[in-house]
Amino acid sequence: MKRLVLGTLLALAFAAPLHADDAPPRLLPTPEQAQAAYLGSMFLSRYHYAIQPLDDALSARIFERYLKNLDPEHLYFTQADIASFEPWRSSLDDAILLGRLEAPFAIHERLAARNAERLAYARSLLEASFDFTTPESIALDRSKAPWPADDAEARDLWRKRVKNDWLRLKLAGQDDKAIRETLGKRYDNALARSRRVRGDDVFQIFMNAYTGTIEPHTSYLGRGSADSFDITMRLSLVGIGAVLQERDEYITVRELSPGGPAARSGKLAVGDRIVGVGQGPDTPLTDVVGNRVDEVVKLIRGTKDTPVVLDILPADAGPDGAHRQITLVRDTIRLEEQAAKKKVLNAGPGDSGPRIGVITLPGFYEDFQGRRSGDKDYRSASRDVARLIEELKGDKVDGLILDLRNNGGGSLREAVELTGLFIDQGPVVQQRRADGKIEVESDEKAGTAWDGPMAVMINRGSASASEILAAALQDYGRAVIIGETSFGKGTVQSLINLDQIARSDTPRYGELKMTIAQFFRVNGGTTQLKGVTPDIRFPSAFDDAEFGETAFDNALPWREIPAARYTPAGTLGSVLPELQRRHDTRIQSDKAFKELQDDVAEALRLKAARSLSLVEAERRKEKDAREARLRARNTQDAAALRDDGLQSGERSLSAELDSEKALKGRKDTPLDEAVNIVGDAAGLLAAKQARR
């Protein structure tokens, strides 16, 4: 994959110690990590769908992947470093089985030292001047390049990185003084971030080198990651309702959740900085300046109806400004931004065309615990979508679009139940276990929530549960599939709680997300590697080797099994040729769709490039041409997409939020055309019904 794209190039956000001459913080493995590694290996070597023995051969592959995970662009380690690690190539299996994790920690310690050296050198270059007429370039992707032969070669790579950072800011209009200040702060912040790397982070990177060597979708979730996954599935947490962000050394309030304790209190505002956290009025405050955001979030979250005290440095106060303390009572926060949403759009020009309901579903969420405990109001994707469909029926819509773009999946059960909203009983997906046994997951509820014309929108980011639903509705003939070929993830994972295995009453060992089966379409095919092919294709800026299952070097192979017994339920197949014809005709004169095609072509052109010029005149010409093209379309788009050379967190918070708002408000050309297609389908099917 090309790691650098014009406009977002060379983000120097890697960890390194605060000062180059300081020794990196010494991180050592713990007995709990040794136990977690051993427990994980027992499950992986016995129960994984693609069992592989943990031996010297697998150790060598883990070794290669661990180095790749630590230094993907080959910018930190030198060939001498790699040679010094060689004695561990065939012994990482023993490290896991015997609980001797010193080797991966020692490799990471070397990385921390190299971070310090590279970023200290980058900082020193800011005192020099660059010649932007010298004909040289920077590689866009070094993932397959050899490691630098020595420190001199590594420094030259970093010189070009800094030169590119400088050039971007110069092209954005900053003078030399401002550039030195911006980049100096950037590199200092990057150095400071390495101080926040914890032993748990190192262990998780190593364990994911192990799990990822077996198969791409098997992973280890440390304690914090496991909590985040649970919150994502529940769409709720207990806290104060504030989105926090690291900005310099401060934890800054980025957003307040409507109706949450923070917003209701009126005591906390966007831009305020949290400098201390206490667990009640009579408890001491913990200083959190310089802490990681996940550590501060952990202090703020807790038990419902308990107090949390925050020491606040107001947004408009300087570093030495007056603090104020506030007390908030924790409450349940519902993550509505990640839940299903609806809207109604009109097909065709004006407001007289068919009314099309659009349901956007970011993920297949399900409150597992609420469902198990019998909570009648537990949250799930299928329940939310069913409710939205009833509301859309009240809005008198003529057709429906289920937008699954960038929906990476979630609960398999939710995929089955959600598919069942559109078919009247029948098989939805087949699962093949490691022993070859095939199980069929079916919709067993009679009736449908929606039996009218519909489409499912997918793109390359639609994976797993999204592909199950899209494939089933395509096989049943219930929906037109519109967009890009999906990701191609045809595997099923199960969560293994290692604390339960170890009978630990406290969270100590994390969880293992392990592939246990491969899923197949009801027609016997699989989405593995091939994904779901849309009935009507839209332009895509991705190719198979860049993003998707085919980009993994160890993905499971495509295979086929016998079809399940099912009866196609829809009539959309009969109108597909006419829908395609109308689509092709419409986009010939659709200015917005032509611009989309041009953008995709430009993105593909940039990705095809192997290097980026560091000559100012060439870069300025490219920048001016790109911005002129955007201005010719929309002044607002040109402003929102202008490359200012800054990274996330370097703009003012208000500017960052304004830019995000502008991008969210941009015209969604693929959705508009999908609405037209479903509008056509509604009209064609209605006419066909009238002729009967």
Which value, in Å, is the CA radius of gyration?
A: 27 Å
Distance between the termini: 53 Å
**What's the number of helices?**
22
Average predicted confidence as pLDDT: 92
Question: What would you say this structure looks like, in words?
Answer:
The chain has 692 residues and is an alpha+beta fold. Helices cover 40% and strands 16% of the residues. The protein is built from 22 helices and 21 strands. Strands 4, 5, 6, 7, 8 and 9 form a six-stranded antiparallel sheet that branches. Helix 6 (151-171) crosses helix 7. The longest helix has 23 residues, at 102-124. It is globular and about 80 Å long. 37% of the residues are buried.
Which characteristics define this entry?
6-stranded antiparallel beta sheet; 22 helices; alpha+beta; disordered N terminus
Concise structural overview:
The chain is built from 22 helices and 21 strands.
SSE layout and pairings?
Elements: H1 31-47, H2 56-70, H3 79-85, H4 92-98, H5 102-124, E1 137-139, H6 151-171, H7 176-193, H8 199-214, E2 219-221, H9 223-234, E3 236-239, E4 242-247, E5 250-256, H10 261-265, E6 273-278, E7 286-287, H11 293-300, E8 307-313, E9 324-329, E10 331-334, E11 341-346, E12 355-360, H12 368-372, H13 381-394, E13 399-403, H14 412-419, E14 426-433, E15 438-443, E16 454-458, H15 465-475, E17 480-483, E18 491-497, H16 498-501, E19 511-520, E20 536-537, H17 576-588, H18 591-608, E21 611-613, H19 616-633, H20 635-640, H21 653-664, H22 669-690
Parallel strand pairs: 12-13, 13-16, 16-17, 17-20
Antiparallel strand pairs: 1-21, 2-19, 3-10, 4-5, 5-6, 6-7, 6-8, 8-9, 11-12, 14-15, 14-19, 18-19
